[in-house]
Amino acid sequence: MIGSVRGRIASKTPPQLMVDVGGIGYELEAPMSTFFHLPGVGEEVMLLTHLVVREDAHVLYGFATESERRLFRSLIKVSGVGPKIALALLSGISVEAFSRCVMNEDITALTKVPGIGRKTAERLIVEMRDRLKDPEVPSSVGTVPVTAGASPETEAYGALIALGYRPAEATRLLKAVGPGTHSTEELIRRALQGASS
Predict the structure, then answer these.
(1) Tell me: the pLDDT tens digits for 57-90?
(2) For the segment 133-166, what is each residue's pLDDT rounded down to a tens digit?
(3) pLDDT score, position 133
(4) Which domain holds residue 162?
(5) Count of domains observed in the chain
(6) What are the tens digits of pLDDT across the range 171-191?
(7) In a domain, 140, yes or no
(8) What is the pTM of this model?
(9) I want to staple 62 with a disulfide (CB 3.0 to 4.6 A). Which of 47, 115, 156, 186 is the partner?
(10) Tell me, what's the pLDDT at 93?
(11) Closest to 78 in 3D by CA, of 31, 121, 133, 111
């Protein structure tokens, strides 16, 4: 199992990134909560990882904090929740906010995350309630462009689509951010905040 990677960021296209470790490029997928704290391309980074082995692929997921990785590992054990939904959950809601949703049985907040319907939200609340009491599962937060010259709006749109938003919904969320000069990460952050409000 690959527990972590340390190297230079070779490319970033949310939610994917590549980390060059001694000449070997590791492709990872990371939640937006991790992407917001990544340094620029060419800078050094250390990420905690989780390897998911499927019949057709081996996918490496990267996390900035241990609490994110532990929650991801707990989520993929829930019936009907795979890595893609777990990644969307961590991108759309913080570890602390997720814990509050589960403890307060806030189905409405969970269903605002793409890919989470009412039945999945109910299952998450039932199955995660006891797990969040487990000290191994966090209850609070621990501490290359798509194409050359692609605009931050284009990159943010692609990231929202990759997270499971429909094209029309991604467009609406980005328009709601309003005009201004924003980085890709800031556009994604504001769009996700708009989606959860």
Answers:
(1) 899 999 999 999 999 999 999 988 999 999 999 9
(2) 654 444 443 332 333 345 777 778 778 877 777 7
(3) 64
(4) 152-196
(5) 3
(6) 888 888 877 777 888 888 888
(7) no
(8) 0.69
(9) 47
(10) 86
(11) 121
Whether 186 is in a domain gets the answer: yes
| Diameter over CA atoms, the chain | 47
CA distance 125 to 24: 40
- Reference 132, options 121, 124, 122; nearest CA is 124
Peptide bond into 179 cis (omega under 30): no
* Single-letter code of the amino acid located at 161: I
Q: Is residue 141 part of a domain?
A: no
Residues 55 and 73 in one domain: no
Going by DSSP bridges, is the β-strand pair 24-29/16-21 parallel, antiparallel, or unpaired?
A: antiparallel
Pick the closest to residue 90 from 126, 50, 45 (CA basis): 50
Amino acid present at 6:
R
